[in-house]
Write a structure and sequence with these properties.
The chain has 385 residues and is an alpha/beta fold. The chain has ten helices and seven strands. A hairpin with a 5-residue loop joins strand 2 and strand 3 (148-157). The longest helix is centred in the middle third of the chain and has 32 residues, at 236-267. It is globular.
Length: 385
């Protein structure tokens, strides 16, 4: 179902966020993938938000995507991460003209009509993240009949139980192998999920291992493979989308933590004080510190979206710095909220401890702080030579 079917009423993002928040603790406890949340996003037309209009979607840019991602993440961080990756990669598939138009149209239409999610599967047990170089051990081998067979294993495959399409980072078996994303239907014969995800935070993302065992592919699905040297030229727009989606996700988590601590301070009236904690200058100062961090994030995200939607994304080094800044600001905001609530912040009866755990995961996304700083520092020092 597309938003085009709801032209008179835009999706109520706040209502969706509240509904997701009501289920978030249970999903966190069990680690089960939140299928119902994505059914609701599909019903609201939001899974087609960044699908081109020519493929049945809304063709929206980054500004609309970030608004939706932040709202969803306020309710459920796990849903927010999978949703952010879906919108990011739908926009990416639309830009990747190496894939035939018919295949790109199918991927977009599947999201709009069936609610099929997409995400990139890049990390491997030995390689780690390909962002630091190296060839993947997931390999597509040419068959005598002209088809291909894909075999390998990916770890940290976010949203794996709910995916309809997988962008699998792989190489071919040529003497000079080409590498890149291979489009694989998640229900293809030979695709197997091994449940391995049991993390501190973002527990319902179900980021399990995915095994590919002689999965049959056609040329069109490998059309984006290219020599490794060609990947050394970063995709500025793709990196900006990654930064923004992650930034909006964790800003949404921090907004949820800020709302909870504000209500707690208004409601909490210690007998020895006789008035709400919210009236104390120290509490007001700390609440202001939280707002400082989140106001900065909001400004950064708005500016980034405006530049990307205008076709002028920042350079890769700047995107890396923005990612680390957005994530660290969000994590610090949650930490301040935790410090104000004391033992209440550590109780599983309250959502703040979940927000704290989810916020820690932001630092695990690439680019990591050391890589972002080194890249920006190298650029700065070489520029002054």
């Amino acid at each position: 179902m597309s938003l085009a079917l709801h032209q008179d009423t835009a999706p109520d993002l706040d209502a969706l966020s509240e509904a997701f928040a009501a289920r978030a603790a249970e999903h966190d406890r069990t680690g089960r993938f939140p299928h119902a949340n994505f059914a609701a996003l599909h019903a609201a037309g939001l899974l087609g938000l960044t699908v081109p209009r020519a493929h049945g979607g809304q063709g929206e840019g980054m500004a609309a995507a970030l608004k939706a991602i932040e709202a969803v993440s306020r309710g459920c961080a796990s849903t927010g991460l999978v949703f952010a990756m879906h919108l990011t990669h739908q926009a990416g598939v639309a830009r990747e003209t190496a894939f035939p138009e018919a295949l790109r149209a199918r991927v977009g239409a599947d999201a709009v009509r069936q609610g099929a999610l997409i995400n990139a599967l890049r990390v491997e047990p030995e390689l780690g993240s390909p962002s630091r170089g190296g060839l993947p051990e997931t390999i597509a081998c040419r068959q005598p009949d002209g088809s291909w067979r894909l075999s390998g294993r990916k770890i940290y495959s976010t949203g794996s139980p709910g995916l309809g399409w997988m962008l699998v980072w792989a190489r071919d078996d040529g003497a000079a192998p080409r590498v890149g994303p291979v489009l694989v239907p998640a229900r293809a014969h030979g695709v197997r999920i091994e449940e391995s995800w049991d993390h501190l935070g973002l527990r319902a993302t179900a980021s399990h291992d995915v095994v590919f065992d002689d999965v049959r592919l056609e040329d069109a699905q490998l059309a984006a493979l290219r020599p490794p040297a060609e990947w050394r030229v970063p995709d500025a727009t793709g990196l900006a989308w990654n930064t923004a989606g992650i930034g909006a996700l964790y800003t949404g988590v921090a907004r949820a933590a800020a709302a909870w601590i504000a209500q707690f301070l208004r409601d909490r009236v210690p007998s020895g004080l006789g008035k709400p904690l919210a009236t104390l200058p120290r509490m007001q100062e700390k609440a202001g510190a939280i707002e400082e961090l989140l106001t900065a994030n909001a400004r950064l995200l708005r500016g980034l979206a405006a530049e990307v939607d205008a076709g002028t994304p920042p350079g890769p080094a700047e995107s890396g710095l923005l990612k680390t800044t957005l994530v660290e600001n969000a994590a610090r905001a949650v930490e301040i909220a935790v410090s104000l609530a004391g033992n209440h912040a550590l109780s599983r009866r309250n959502p703040l401890e979940r927000h704290w755990r989810d916020a820690q995961c932001g630092r695990a996304h690439v680019p990591h702080v050391d890589f972002a700083h080194q890249s920006a520092g190298r650029e700065a020092l070489e520029g002054g030579a």
